[in-house]
Amino acid sequence: KIPNALWANLIQERLSNVDCIKQGWILEGFPENQEQAWMLQSSGIIPRHVVVLYAADTVLIERNGGKRLDPFTEEVYHTTFDWPSDPLIQQRLVKPEDLSEQEMSKKLLEYHRNFPGVFQIYQKVLKSVNADQPCMDV
């Protein structure tokens, strides 16, 4: 695990680059807990918008089972929602090793434990979107 202070420094350094200053930035999957959110804020990294996609745990676990990875391009596909049309790509897709139902349950437990604190910090700029609907609607 990378210490929170190091994460904050790395992100602060990256977001100070010209492209981020001119075009903006998106952080995906970070911060994961209240401490990381405070570290970002104390580093001067304050998002204007925070978007949280939510769905029932059962839906997330089920969707997780359909993920497939192209080991050459590292593109992520899904057996139901985003299957590649190219048969060569289809043949080389593999199921990610770290995405067992047990691993997913652990991640969800950690999420439910940590995110109330993150929501509290970003409540004024937070927008929750129901992800249990067609992609185009999300």
TrEMBL record:
Pfam families: ADK
Taxonomic source organism: Anseranas semipalmata (Magpie goose)
InterPro entries associated with the record: Adenylat/UMP-CMP_kin (IPR000850), ADK_active_lid_dom_sf (IPR036193), P-loop_NTPase (IPR027417)
Protein name: KAD8 kinase
Recorded coiled-coil stretches: none
Keywords, comma-separated and alphabetical: Kinase, Nucleotide-binding, Transferase
Gene3D superfamilies: P-loop containing nucleotide triphosphate hydrolases (3.40.50.300)
Gene name of this polypeptide: Ak8
Family listed: Belongs to the adenylate kinase family.
Top-level taxonomic group: Eukaryota
SUPFAM superfamilies xref list: Microbial and mitochondrial ADK, insert 'zinc finger' domain, P-loop containing nucleoside triphosphate hydrolases
Molecular function (Gene Ontology), one example: ATP binding
